[in-house]
Amino acid sequence: MIIPRFYLFILASVAFIGIWFLSYKPFLYQQLSVSQSTDGGRSLPLNHSLPPLEAAGNETLGFQKILILSTGPSWRTRGLLAAAHLTGLQITIPPQPPIDEAIVDAFGQLGGDDDDEEHPPHGATIAWLAHLDLIKHAIQLDLETVLIIEDDVDWDVSIRHQMVRIASAIRNLTHTEQRDQSSHPTPYGHDWDLLWIGHCGEFWNEDFETVSFEDRSACPKAQYSGWARNYLSHLPDHHRSIYWSFNPVCSFAYALSRKGMRNVLRVAGGGRGEAFDVKVMQACKAKALRCISVVPEVVHQYFPAASYGVNSLVDIGNGEAVGPDETEFESVMGSTDNILESARCNALWGKTCLR
Ligand SMILES: *[C@@H]1O[C@H](CO)[C@@H](O)[C@H](O)[C@H]1NC(C)=O
Ligand SMILES: *[C@@H]1O[C@H](CO)[C@@H](O)[C@H](O)[C@H]1NC(C)=O
Ligand SMILES: *[C@@H]1O[C@H](CO)[C@@H](O)[C@H](O)[C@H]1NC(C)=O
What are the UniProt keywords, alphabetically (predicted)? Predict the structure, then answer.
């Protein structure tokens, strides 16, 4: 076969550009890939033009982005990415900016020595500042809505189906038309600052205006654990209940609207409290924020097997032992409270791991 010189020249140029591009890829990757995404798309097909309510079951659960609060790659993020891949969620893990010790001390001491002032312990202060940073990041990205998730959590394999019905219930609670005709339709309507979908318990009493619907994927009362077990016992079994927040704690997963991001910075940006979640909860309770709780929760913290005695980063920051190296326990299945069909354990071990 005769190849004219001219074509050889083109071929050489293409090869050269190709090599140039490949050799620059690591550089581009470093520059551009400040996030890691997964896009498994297993449970629902990709469709960018879903009607508003059904969009709550899309790859970002009907929010504009899912941002993960994380200090970097570890057993926490690896399991999280596996769970996201299994359930077809697109998550972004932005690098956390360094948090200076002097800032931690200063923030923890805001409010001074007044006896009425509460001060967060060291580890809780670091986590608090990290949450504020991530919310500022969401504001810089100019997001309409964001779902913020801590990196050691877990959810049910059916989370995308769960969220569509939760969105419908939130619309009912906020008296938003089921068929939103507004120019910016969103699955969850607009009448909220914060949706508390991942927590470690919430209070309830019968005076609360509550929207409940049957959900066989909700953790049954008999298997629900935690301090709020007693309150849950008054709600219908095998149901998901949605109401204005009263006393949710633990910031495992929460969504913020555009105005919610600013309002949380306003109420929690100045420290003075036990921890970020408690400060936000108090603002929800005082109606300084419009917060909605989902009970039982759809996101909960995963724990490595108890025998290894692994502490959370917040506890370690507060003075608890650093514990074993992750290589010792990462491959051993742990457990997740209150999640029937764990996505993390399914992805990593093909099993459920309800405690
Ligand atoms: C996406 O969803 C919309 C609204 O339900 C529907 O009309 C459209 O046909 C869907 N597109 C695809 C590719 O499935
Ligand atoms: C999911 O739906 C929300 C709300 O409609 C939208 O902002 C977001 O871009 C969608 N996510 C994806 C991955 O299409
Ligand atoms: C919300 O209200 C509509 C209309 O009454 C109803 O069809 C729907 O089932 C309700 N959704 C939930 C989750 O309660």
Answer: Membrane, Transmembrane, Transmembrane helix
Query: Ligand 2 in contact with 48 (CB < 6 A)?
Result: yes
Beta bridge partners of 239: 214
Instruction: Give the 3-state secondary structure of residue 155.
Output: strand
Distance 88 CA to ligand 3 centre (A): 26
| Ligand nearest to the backbone CA of 52 | 2
Q: Which two tokens stand for residue 167?
A: 């969105």
Ligand 3 centroid from CA 167, angstroms = 10
We find that the CATH architecture of domain 5-302 is Alpha-Beta Complex (3.90)
Give the CA distances from residue 289 to residues 65, 124, 209, 262, in Å, rounded to whole numbers and listed in that order.
21, 21, 17, 10
Confidence of residue 211 (pLDDT cuts 50, 70, 90): very high
State mean pLDDT over 120-142.
97
Q: Which region among 37-51, 125-139, 140-154, 258-272 has the lowest average model confidence (pLDDT)?
A: 37-51
Q: Is the CB of 213 under 6 A from ligand 3?
A: yes
pLDDT in tens, 152-167: 999 999 999 999 999 9
- Say what the pLDDT of residue 29 is: 31
Question: What is the rounded average pLDDT of the residues 68-74?
Answer: 97
Residue spans per domain, the chain:
5-302
| Distance of CA 48 from the midpoint of ligand 1 (Å) | 8
Distance CA 200, CA 295 (A): 10
pLDDT digits (tens, 9 = 90+) for 16-26: 444 444 443 33
Closest CA to 304 of 351, 253, 353: 353
Q: CA-to-CA distance for 238 and 255, rounded, in angstroms?
A: 24
